[in-house]
Write a structure and sequence with these properties.
The chain is an alpha/beta fold and about 290 residues long. The protein is about 35% helix and about 10% strand. The strands form 2 sheets. Strands 5-4-3-6-7-8 form a 6-stranded mixed beta sheet, with helices on one face. The chain has a two-stranded antiparallel sheet with strand order 1-2.
Length: about 290
């Protein structure tokens, strides 16, 4: 059975899933079985367990048409997260909208490195103040708050639509009482000090969009300028002071304008202890202590 605009009128859930996966495989998608499961589950409103339990059920014509429509979008290289409107990050589900980027798995190394900085100062149990500049869906901030039970977080973004998405995610994750979201450019509306400041803003230049892979997130078109943020002293967002009222060993880490990184060690090179009241806007090349 070939998936084009429609499926055969009355396939079973299992046969539709196999057909979609075969179509994705022919088109060279990297994870055809996973993508097919997600498309079918989303079209039917079923979780993984229910999808397996109802595998032999015959689809209605409307359900088959919905699956075919989602499959066609995926075959056109629309990212899965854009189609289903949700992306898992740090083991948490984040709702997305047109104003937010899709959280990428490799960005989890920012969370890992930030928590490592906190743990080095044995500050995980303290009431830390955390800022996330350019929060988007709130993924970085809310992932950190999920690991730091006494921390309070502040997320900023220039897009009110993105901030609404982040607030919804905070509510859904049970973190709304400890998360606040403000509309501003980076940290211009924030007043420090903060114990931890993180940021992972868009870094792809508009002029480079055409050279990206077909599945690159189109939202980046709305959020980046003509030139990417440089890896060096030219990276100068407005940020709050990064300091603490506690001892010198308190968690005072930050991540700034992360470019393409692929490992925790690379991210750790962009995170450092900050002197009270000081923010170095260039990249730090020294490792964390």
């Amino acid at each position: 059975m070939t998936v084009t605009a429609t499926l055969d009128p009355r396939p079973s859930i299992a046969s539709a899933r196999r057909s979609v996966a075969q179509s994705f495989r022919r088109d060279g998608l990297a994870t055809p079985e996973l993508d097919a499961r997600l498309m079918v589950a989303h079209a039917l409103g079923l979780d993984h367990a229910a999808l397996a339990a109802q595998a032999a059920r015959t689809l209605t014509e409307a359900e088959a048409a919905a699956i075919a429509a989602f499959a066609a979008r995926r075959r056109a290289r629309e990212p899965v997260a854009r189609i289903i409107g949700v992306k898992e990050f740090w083991g948490l589900n984040f709702k997305l909208n047109t104003a937010t980027l899709v959280p990428r798995p490799e960005t989890e190394v920012v969370v890992e490195a930030a928590l490592d900085a906190v743990d080095r100062s044995q500050a995980r149990g303290r009431a830390l103040r955390v800022a996330d500049l350019g929060t988007g869906s709130g993924a970085l901030l809310l992932a950190l708050l999920s690991e730091l039970p006494l921390a309070r977080g502040f997320g900023t973004d220039v897009s009110r639509e993105a901030l609404g998405c982040a607030r919804d995610n905070a509510v859904a994750l049970g973190l709304a009482e400890r998360a606040s979201f403000l509309a501003c450019d980076y940290g211009s509306a924030l007043k420090g000090p903060f114990d931890l400041v993180v940021s992972n803003p868009p870094y792809v230049a508009r002029d480079d969009i055409a050279s990206l892979a077909p599945e690159a997130d189109p939202t980046v078109l709305m959020l980046t300028g003509r030139s990417p943020r440089p890896r060096g002293n030219g990276c100068r967002p407005t940020v709050p002071s990064c300091s603490s009222s506690g001892s010198a060993s308190s968690a005072r880490a930050r991540a700034c304008c992360l470019p393409q990184v692929s490992s925790p060690s690379e991210v750790r090179d962009t995170i450092s202890w900050a002197s009270p009241g000081r923010w170095r806007s260039s990249f730090c090349h020294s490792s964390l202590p």
